[in-house]
Amino acid sequence: MTQDQQSTYAIHPIDVILHKRDGLALTDAEIRAFIRAIVDRTPRKQLVTDAQIAAFLMAVFLHGLDPRELATLTEAMRFSGEVAYTEALNTFTIDKHSTGGVGDKTSLLIAPILAAAGLAHPTRDGVPGIVVPMISGRSLGHTGGTLDKLETIPGFNTQLSFAEMRDVLRECAAALIGQTPAIVPADRILYALRDHTGTVESPFLIAASIMSKKLAEGLNALVLDVKVGSGAFMPTYEKSKFLAELMVRTGETSRTRTVALLTTMDEPLGRFSGNWVEVWECVDIMKQVRHPMSADLIELTNILSGWMLHLAGQADSPEEGAKLSDEILRSGAAYKAWLKIIAAQGGDTTLFEDPASHHKPTATRILTASQSGYLTGMDCKQVGWAVQRLGAGRAIPGDPVSSHAGIEMHAKLGDKLEANQPLVTLFSEDASLLDEPEAMLRKTLQITNAPIAKQPLIREVITANSLT
Ligand code: URA
What we know:
- By secondary structure, this protein is of the alpha/beta class.
- It folds into three domains: 76 residues, Transferase, Pyrimidine Nucleoside Phosphorylase, Chain A, domain 3 (Up-down Bundle); 276 residues, Pyrimidine Nucleoside Phosphorylase, Chain A, domain 2 (3-Layer(aba) Sandwich); 88 residues, Aldehyde Oxidoreductase, domain 3 (Alpha-Beta Complex), CATH 3.90.1170.
- The chain contains 16 helices and 13 strands.
- Helix 15 runs antiparallel to helix 16.
- The protein is globular, with a radius of gyration of 22 Å.
- The two termini are 34 Å apart.
- The structure holds uracil.
- Uracil binds next to helix 9.
């Protein structure tokens, strides 16, 4: 009998825990049985208890997983619920995932850029030649969530079934939806327990969590934006790189071309951080209103889209892809695709005619430079927390977020400043929420007499070929 022919329930959770606790490699059958037991259990039939799941998580945290175990865990999680079955569209399916940052709104630009490219080159069946089935998340810790930003658009429905998503993809080439309880239910259960057992930071568990959800979209290719720097989740460059390598290897094992870019997150990306303000910034860019503070956002967007266009076969190199991406932005094709996607998902597109007029914070405060000099440092995580505390994020899961809370940065790292010039504008819908974020920003933004050398935006690219 092969491993796969073994009855999954003939494997007892306690044995799986003991094997991992003792540092042994788990068999594929053991991993699959454990994940099946997690999702098949009911209150009356406790195939595996929370205590056992917690013990399993800690054993994985302490001993890690080899590449085969990680690939099997990711696949078992991926197929623990509904999968998108985008293969039915018979086209090239691609997505991007970011490990999360401050002001990181590239998804709002990348989806319409790739959609415009897909709509311009349909297949023989009339389906767009590239589709982007983007499943996004909500704000997490100090970082914002694409879903929270999109939900500031009145009427926009992110809760589509996979069948509805395929209809939007056929028409618009991209769909922007949220996770439902039916998608990768194993991750929801594991994540909740990780949060309570000190096992969130395991790179193996993070890789399985992220990749199971992305691969459930049925992708041909995936581009990962793995952040490094003071605003990244991973505390060191080495840990970010290790996570990137795990994810690239896992994606490739699942026959999804996977590339990871290690990108700098030492300061908020672009001009605004918040919810509606980030939509506004992206709409401006798509309408060729390029604010100087958005330059890094546009650059990163074009580099990530460039890789995606290259992997999708529309550009000979990532560099050619980046040029094509910028052309798509400048031509207005991305904006047209954006309007189509938003309308197809029920959103009110009239707001985009004058996005600035829909920014309605009731409390605003300007933080000015305390002295002249150069902006030379900040703890970007603290900046992210300041944005969240203005009301853009939630203290408790399920809380509503404020559409109009956020910040506008008026300087980038390395910029020369005059004393009293505006540094950051804070926005909130509650004046009592301004003081703490202001103090946090004042404390973390460093002005010194001498300039600094800035880290480049792209630090390293990890592909299947660069894996050791
Ligand atoms: N994002 C996820 O989806 N999972 C993790 O474990 C961490 C970040």
